[in-house]
Inverse folding.
């Protein structure tokens, strides 16, 4: 064959990297070193003697940890090979993890944070030496106050669920301060709000009441009203919900909660489609939170660190976590940022120091790159992309979007393959596995599966029309396969790092292997002490060989 | 958004694309999609935000300018600890966790995010070796949360409420733990000795209503617990769980708590290959034995080994997923969500690079430098060590005899470019040494405090004469 090169086929011929790397312990070679520690100075050694021998016997480790012994490049190579065996947002059309807002994390922001002026800052340094990071933190708080309409913001929490915990902890403290802590024992949420609202409320000691959608698919206001009582501490809801449906009666929900003396807490994990459109405060909420790793672009980092932002009305501000960053202007007009301990009503520290600082700087930079018009554009294009995707997906035979039929959605949709499942017996999970063969990630839903055979897609503002089309084409192809060549789907993955994985051992305490150490003990009868001793012996043998 | 607004992060702002997509869905404008948002909830104005810096070059200049106002521990000589520690981060750690594939991965399944699962399984496994325990979680938020959860697990397992706090705890950590557990547990503070446990006082308070004995080692002042076995035996005799909060940095030379009877070992991984990040890089570990009674109380994800259709292929999956709030909302154990996975991968790379020998050498170095710094500071007339306990990395000095306040010393030394430590009392300073503060640095600190002490004594003498 000669040039020209033939046109590409309609679907990408993807194959994931598959390095077949062993578990790292199998790469150990006695005597190798990955990095050396700076030596103890002779002057120090002379002054202190042998500190290890001096340890009380019970405190001196007899058997060294059986960590692998590896040269530096082998460690690097091992982990770089593992890195290639992932479908990160920088590589795939990452619209398959709906509710998680897998938007583009700008590379410039990663570069900006990687300087000693941030990485080598200690949180208890003189605030005069930390003016830059304090100013960024304070500015981001103010920006998020404007975006939410709330009065005060804290950036301390490390993820969305941690922020939900801070919300419920503040709610609890507020009612206790008003002498109603004992009386208000219930939190109301909706089934299409993130499960952590229910779970964090339970962890804080509340009974949880869950509201299901009404006949039209909207959160059921009548059911809410029936559930509200003087026992209610708060409603804790997401809006738009994980179905992408915006609750048009949200103001009525909040008002109804307030009428019984409850607070209204807004999980803004799904805020990406409403930035600059509508705000928590405008609907009357008392407290809300954002996920900086969703709406404000910080990377998802294999599952964290993310970052949470808790925003509250003035009435809740005394309960915010501490310490707080403050801005002071002296008589000459000079601005200075400082750190102040939290007041007496604060829920205290929810995390070390000031939160996930690298992500605070990334989120600040993202907002500064976009401004008000850019934030609105992000929201509007995210919603345009979503409704475009909705049209394309529901055009695939066998796919549907249950609830609020025919209505527009905000920034995501929880779809259903129920019709395809009934026709072919192929489940949504199986479709997801096969879709990965095209280099694309796909997620079903949180549990329980209220939508049958669910899948949840959220295109955000970051993906081009061509990319969305590519994703839909792959989905349509898998649906076609489900009808015409179901075995291809059932035996997937075919183009992935590893093949079909057997999960039977993962739920059996006799068989599960949560660490290498447990695996070697359970399946090979090795005691950790023996493994370490063997390693020591072979190290000694290697040393004597090289000496010889 | 105006029709002419096009942004590099938002490809479909390109006007022709936007129109084509609207046409495809039969919408006249984007506003149609917001039909469910009531008019009276619409903001109806532009957000009041600073003017954007849409050119990347301008953004970079702006943020670099702000960060340029900081003076870091590279420019200042720092003896600060108290929860965040200045350890050396090998270049390979940063290289790995800055890879796009790790940085932007999230919730892929084991066959498509195999690398993430393996890296985190290995983190669990490497920590397990360091801690001599069979089970370690995918990291939770930080050491505060890990300890709060560890104690809550003990409460759920025993059905009891009392927790005996046997050591001096970092105040912010105690604040978090207290608020987290207070619905389910009652914290009871047993008087401490040198910041560590008074074993007989703990034993005297143990009863069949105690859920856990909570020991911190090192304590908030860096004191190591030397009677852990005794505490474990006493706790177990009463049917209580021994929860040990710790920093894993010393376990290359120190006996891991599990080998002295600890049931739940928890803490923070920031010391293992993470920069200080102004206190913004923490991750929490919880370690237990391979006992379903403990494991089924853990909220975090646990990745386990699995076979695949291909012999020799290493597969992974979630162990006992049914424990989690992902599976059962409020019926799960606490909750699970985005936490600190990438920091866990960093800690795993760090331990793989260090190996047993590196962790041993580092542990010895920390013990040696701690003792050296104690000797040098205690040699200053009027300056005394806060206690006689064995310390790792941190210790307090009492400056009262030298007529100095801790605040005064901090103020004076900051003017010399030194952060001498954290003020933990009027005359008490918490000093932290690591591999980043060598003999010369410690000598400089001692000389600077020595000079202040001398000047103070001189002043006092002159005042006396006057």
């Amino acid at each position: 064959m000669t040039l020209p090169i033939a046109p590409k086929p309609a679907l990408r011929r993807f194959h994931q990297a598959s390095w077949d790397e062993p578990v790292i312990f199998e790469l150990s070679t006695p005597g190798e070193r990955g990095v050396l520690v700076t030596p103890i100075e002779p002057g120090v050694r002379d002054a202190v003697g042998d500190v290890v021998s001096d340890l009380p016997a019970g405190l001196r480790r007899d058997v060294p940890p059986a960590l692998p012994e590896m040269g530096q490049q082998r460690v690097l190579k091992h982990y770089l090979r593992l890195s290639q065996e992932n479908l990160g947002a920088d590589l795939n059309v990452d619209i398959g993890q709906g509710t998680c807002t897998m938007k583009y994390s700008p590379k410039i922001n990663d570069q900006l944070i990687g300087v000693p002026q941030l990485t080598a800052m200690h949180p208890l340094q003189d605030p005069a030496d930390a003016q830059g990071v304090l100013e960024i933190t304070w500015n981001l708080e103010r920006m998020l106050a404007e975006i939410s309409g709330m009065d005060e913001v804290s950036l301390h929490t490390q993820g969305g669920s941690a922020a939900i915990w801070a919300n419920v902890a503040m709610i609890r403290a507020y009612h206790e301060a008003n002498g109603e802590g004992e009386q208000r024992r219930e939190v109301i949420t909706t089934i299409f709000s993130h499960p952590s609202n229910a779970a964090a409320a339970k962890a804080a000691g509340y009974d949880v009441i869950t509201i299901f959608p009404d006949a039209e698919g909207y959160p059921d206001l009548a059911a809410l009203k029936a559930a509200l009582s003087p026992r209610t501490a708060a409603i804790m809801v997401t809006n738009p919900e994980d179905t992408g449906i915006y609750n048009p009666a949200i103001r009525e929900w909040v008002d109804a909660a307030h009428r019984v003396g409850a607070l209204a807490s807004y999980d803004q994990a799904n805020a990406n489609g409403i930035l600059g459109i509508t705000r928590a405060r405008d609907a009357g909420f008392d407290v809300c939170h954002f996920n900086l790793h969703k709406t404000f672009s910080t990377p998802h980092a294999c599952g964290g660190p993310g970052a949470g932002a808790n925003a509250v009305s003035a009435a809740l501000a005394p309960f915010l976590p501490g310490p707080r960053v403050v801005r002071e202007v002296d008589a000459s007009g000079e601005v200075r940022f400082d750190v102040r301990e939290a007041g007496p009503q604060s829920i205290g520290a929810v995390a070390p120091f000031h939160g996930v600082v690298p992500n605070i700087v990334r989120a600040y930079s993202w907002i500064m790159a976009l401004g008000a018009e850019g934030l609105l554009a992000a929201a509007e294009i995210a919603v345009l992309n979503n409704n475009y995707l909705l049209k394309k997906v529901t055009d695939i035979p066998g796919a549907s979007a249950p609830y609020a039929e025919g209505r527009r959605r905000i920034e995501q949709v929880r779809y259903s393959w129920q019709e395809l499942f009934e026709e072919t017996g192929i489940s949504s999970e199986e479709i997801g596995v096969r879709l990965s063969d095209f280099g694309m990630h796909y997620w079903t839903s949180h549990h329980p599966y209220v939508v049958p055979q669910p899948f949840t897609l959220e295109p955000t503002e970051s993906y081009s029309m061509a990319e969305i089309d590519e994703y839909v084409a792959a989905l349509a192809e898998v649906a076609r396969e489900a009808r015409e060549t179901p075995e291809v789907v059932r035996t997937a993955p075919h183009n992935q790092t590893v093949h079909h994985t057997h999960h039977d051992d993962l739920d059996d305490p006799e068989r599960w292997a949560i660490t290498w150490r447990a695996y070697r003990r359970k399946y090979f009868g090795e005691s950790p002490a023996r493994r370490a001793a063997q390693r020591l012996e072979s190290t000694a043998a290697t040393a004597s060989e090289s000496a010889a | 958004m105006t029709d002419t607004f096009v942004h590099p992060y938002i490809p479909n702002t390109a006007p022709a694309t936007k129109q084509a997509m609207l046409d495809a869905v039969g919408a006249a404008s984007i506003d149609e999609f917001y039909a469910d948002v009531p008019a009276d909830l619409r903001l109806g104005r532009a957000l009041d935000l600073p003017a954007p810096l849409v050119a990347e070059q301008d953004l970079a200049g702006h943020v670099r300018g702000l960060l340029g106002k900081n003076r870091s521990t590279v420019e200042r000589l720092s003896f600060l600890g108290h929860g965040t520690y200045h350890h050396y981060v090998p270049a390979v750690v940063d290289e790995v966790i800055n890879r796009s594939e790790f940085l932007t991965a999230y919730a892929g399944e084991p066959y498509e995010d195999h690398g993430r699962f393996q890296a985190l399984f290995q983190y669990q496994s490497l920590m397990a070796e360091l801690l001599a325990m069979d089970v370690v979680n995918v990291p939770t938020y930080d050491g505060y949360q890990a300890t709060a959860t560890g104690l809550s697990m003990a409460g759920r397992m025993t059905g009891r409420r009392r927790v005996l706090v046997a050591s001096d705890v970092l105040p912010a950590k105690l604040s978090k733990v207290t608020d987290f557990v207070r619905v389910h547990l009652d914290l009871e503070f047993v008087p401490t000795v040198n910041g560590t446990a008074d074993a007989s006082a703990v034993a005297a308070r143990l009863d069949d209503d105690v859920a856990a004995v909570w020991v911190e080692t090192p304590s908030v002042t860096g004191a190591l617990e030397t009677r852990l076995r005794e505490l474990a035996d006493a706790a177990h005799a009463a049917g209580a769980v021994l929860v040990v909060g710790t920093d894993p940095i010393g376990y290359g030379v120190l006996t891991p708590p599990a080998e002295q009877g600890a049931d739940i070992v928890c803490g923070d991984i920031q010391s293992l290959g993470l920069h200080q990040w102004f206190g913004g890089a923490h991750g929490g570990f919880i370690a237990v034995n391979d006992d379903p009674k403990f494991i089924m109380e853990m909220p975090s994800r646990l990745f386990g080994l699995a076979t695949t259709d291909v012999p020799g292929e290493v597969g992974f999956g979630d162990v006992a997923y049914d424990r989690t709030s992902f599976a059962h909302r409020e019926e799960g154990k606490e909750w699970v969500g985005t936490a600190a996975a990438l920091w866990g991968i960093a800690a795993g790379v760090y331990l793989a690079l260090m190996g047993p020998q590196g962790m041993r050498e580092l542990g010895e170095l920390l013990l040696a430098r701690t003792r050296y710094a104690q000797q040098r500071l205690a040699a200053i007339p009027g300056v005394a060590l806060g206690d006689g306990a064995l310390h790792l990395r941190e210790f307090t000095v009492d400056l009262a005899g030298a007529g100095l306040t801790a605040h005064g010393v901090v103020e004076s030394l900051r003017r010399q470019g030194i952060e001498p430590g954290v003020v933990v009392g009027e005359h008490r300073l918490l000093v932290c040494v690591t591999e980043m503060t060598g003999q010369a640095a410690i000598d400089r600190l001692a000389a600077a405090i020595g000079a202040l002490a001398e000047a103070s004594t001189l002043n006092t003498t002159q005042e006396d004469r006057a």
